[in-house]
Design goal:
There is one protein chain. By secondary structure, this protein is α/β, with parallel strands linked by helices. The protein has 3 domains: 4-56, 434 Repressor (Amino-terminal Domain) (Orthogonal Bundle); 61-160 and 296-324, Rossmann fold, CATH 3.40.50; 163-288 and 328-342, 3-Layer(aba) Sandwich (Rossmann fold), CATH 3.40.50.2300. Helix content is 44%, strand content 14%. It is built from 13 helices and 11 strands. It has helices at 4-11, 15-23, 30-43, 49-56, 74-87, 103-116, 131-135, 163-176, 192-207, 224-237, 249-261, 295-311, 336-342, and strands at 61-66, 91-96, 121-124, 144-147, 158-159, 182-186, 216-219, 243-246, 271-276, 289-292, 324-326. The chain has a 6-stranded mixed sheet, sandwiched between helices. Helix 1 packs across helix 2 and helix 1 (4-11) crosses helix 3 (30-43). The longest helix is centred in the last third of the chain and has 17 residues, at 295-311. The N and C termini lie far apart (74 Å).
């Protein structure tokens, strides 16, 4: 395999001159640069990643941390990051939570792993860290983009949708169909984005005269298994409801599967609404109506901001991310038997 010394020898130049042509940095006379390029072509020279890093002073790698490497939520996030990086000739190194420690220690371990690999910048998605943890990152803090969480004093680096609005939209959508009896399968109480979307949902119900204290609520772990278990618990409790709001799509898919397994028709008996509008929502049975969070756009903007910081590029970075509802088959009006008792005019 040819080396940079071989290229320099064939071109009749010094190694330093050949290196400047390879890296594209530093002045080289046009005629000399042309000889070097012809030598590169003749020798089929391909500098190693390590060599390119030494020449350019950058690793051309972005570190990405996510808490889990499973399910239908994180895979599209990683795909969007990878597509943006590859379009810029860059690569990503991924770390995710593992080991015996809690979510916070796993996140810090993963981020340190990425820093030790000389990643030029970091894009992280975790709500387990504290402001004090970010402060310990030192210089790496300035080249850090954050998805779905806001750290103090880092507004420009954080890319987070308005989850409270998303929860309110879910409530508005179900209210418009005349529902008055609700149940909620929430995510972990320790998750700020879960708290925001559930609070938004409950506050919107309260605006229209539905007492949030009368809404049966189960806490899950955002997984299909958690959705199944919570739906089973709700049905076993004997609590009557016509609409179920799930704090993410995977939970909703698990709930749909349980309801189907015990012969409860959706949406004829119970309407079910998800959140995030992930790929799984399109292929559930019935197809899931879900609050659409524009995760691809949010993710690309975070990645582009980071590329601008790391490499001096000028990518467009969006700051506004409209939230909507994607209508499918899992939501309908109040069941006929309960319609007259449930229907009440909405107040503006």
């Amino acid at each position: 395999m040819a080396t940079i010394k071989d290229v320099a020898s064939l071109a009749g130049v010094g190694v330093g001159t050949a290196s400047r042509v390879v890296s594209g940095k530093g002045a080289v006379a046009p005629a000399t640069a042309e000889r070097v390029r012809k030598a590169i072509e003749a020798l089929n020279f391909r500098p190693s990643h390590v060599a390119r890093s030494l020449l350019s002073g950058v690793s051309q790698m972005i570190g990405v941390y996510i808490p889990l490497l499973e399910g239908t939520f994180y895979t599209p996030i990683l795909s969007a990051i990878n597509a943006q990086l590859r379009a810029s000739g860059l690569h990503m190194v991924v770390a995710f939570g593992c080991g015996d420690g809690d979510a916070r220690s796993q996140a810090m371990e993963g981020i340190r792993f990425l820093i030790e690999r000389d990643c030029d910048g970091l894009l992280i998605m975790t709500d387990a860290l504290r402001d004090s943890d970010i402060a310990t990152l030192g210089d790496a803090r300035s080249k850090l983009a954050v998805l779905n969480f806001d750290f103090a004093g880092m507004q420009a680096q954080c890319f987070t949708p308005d989850h409270r609005l998303g929860g309110a939209l879910a409530a508005q959508s179900l209210l418009k169909f005349g529902h008055r009896k609700y149940a909620v399968i929430a995510g972990p109480a320790s998750s700020p984005d879960n708290v925001a979307r559930v609070d938004g949902f409950m506050q919107e119900l309260a605006r229209y005269g539905v007492d949030p204290l009368q809404v049966a609520t189960q806490e899950s772990d955002f997984s299909p298994a958690g959705g199944w278990a919570c739906a089973r618990s709700l049905i076993a409790s004997g609590y009557e409801f016509t609409a179920l709001f799930c704090a993410n799509d995977e939970t909703a898919v698990g709930a749909l599967a349980y309801l189907q397994s015990v012969g409860i028709a959706v949406p004829a008996a119970i309407s079910v609404m998800g959140y995030d509008d992930t790929h799984s929502a399109k292929y559930s049975a019935p197809q899931l109506t879900s609050v659409h969070i524009p995760w691809p756009e949010i993710t690309r903007s975070a990645a582009r901001w980071l590329l601008n910081q790391c490499y001096g590029s000028n990518h467009e970075v969006l700051r506004e991310f409209p939230i909507s509802v994607t209508w499918r088959a899992s939501v309908a009006g109040v069941p006929v038997a309960q319609e007259s008792a449930s229907r009440m005019p909405l107040r503006a």
